[in-house]
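Recap quiz, item 2
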Amino acid sequence: MAHCGSDNEHDPNARSVAEATTAILAASPPIQDRESLPLYAALDRVLAEDVLAPADVPAWPNSAMDGYALRSEDLGSARRVIGKAFAGHPFAGRVGPGECVRIMTGAVLPEGADAVLIQEQAEIHADMVTPSAPVAAKANVRFAGEDLRQGAIAFLAGTLLRPARLGVLAALGVSEVSVYRRLRVAFFSTGDELRPLGATLGSGQIYDSNRYTLHAMLSRLDCEVFDLGRVADDPAALEAALQQAAGMADMVVTTGGVSVGDADYISGLLQSLGQVNFWKINMKPGRPLAFGQLGAATFFGLPGNPVSMIVTFYQFVRPAILKRMGSQGPWLPPTLRLPLAEALRKKPGRTDFQRGRLLRSETGLQVAGVGAQSSHILSGMAHADCFIVLPAESAGAAAGEWVDVQILEGLV
Ligand code: AMP
Ligand code: MG
């Protein structure tokens, strides 16, 4: 059958990446079910409620350094050491004129003191300490509430809980959080040529590599993943798998069978099972994409080509998952502008997601292509740590030119 256009041809019926993204996000409502989890279990979940600071953090003024707590107004003069303040062991008394207290990082600033002289600037003779440099008021002091004030919003609902955020919640004494439940995602691969690992490959057969990549990408996003295996290019089997998937999951993702090839049954089936659109997207790789609704589930039919599958997952599925998980964003991959270390070839027509690698140079960070950019070269994708995004109208980019770069954050 006729090929649906050469790589460099702009298809007037194709929608842009931005149009597709907007439509997908608009049709990806956040789930509502929530559960209460201890902090340890809450990594990568999304907060379902705002968290207010129940107390000031830090709760007391304390020292940022090891040294001597003193009164800054007693300029230049020697002070007598009257006690010690260690983290967890405050000094009970008060620092008067001409006095100071030996203090360690994190110890409560004793009453009367308003600054800490760092020990490197302390001249010590017996129990007398003389600053070798002036000490300004408030020097080396962390103030109560400087990090978070009691009653302030620590995190808004919709915040994805990363390690440092869990740390802040722990610092606030919050031991349990209300989060959205995990998003349930069912997936399967389609294709008569696919064989499981361990099988001996016959002529024309390949291992089902997408299944492993997809499982890993979904797991990284903390989805509850249901692997429905490999499904043959057979309408009855596909229909059964799609129905099973839609009945158990919030989202269904399939790979393969969405182009206009003869064996591509998925499109016909989906019209009867749900409301699914078949889009040509003006991008390379990954032109065909099915998106819509399968019963209550969001459906993505990704191309079977391994690199196309990853690129479309990263551009469309990941944002939809994050939004459905309840995240307030950012949903889209972070983009940097970086200079190219070497020229990249491209023909005008489609937005190109070339696989790239970040390079450190004397002048700063640069980016280069990973070599072969054909959409069946999975090893190039595997060595990439970013996509270099060249706009549809671009006719290639010269060495030194600044380009958009999406950092992959280890997702793929
Ligand atoms: P399709 O989208 O079904 O037309 O497949 C496009 C190309 O991707 C073909 O070369 C397929 O053999 C290959 N392919 C499809 N599914 C997979 C898979 N699960 N793992 C690896 N390659 C695949
Ligand atoms: Mg196929």
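The first helix runs from residue 17 to 26.
Helices lie at 17-26, 163-171, 209-220, 235-248, 266-273, 306-324, 378-383.
End of item.
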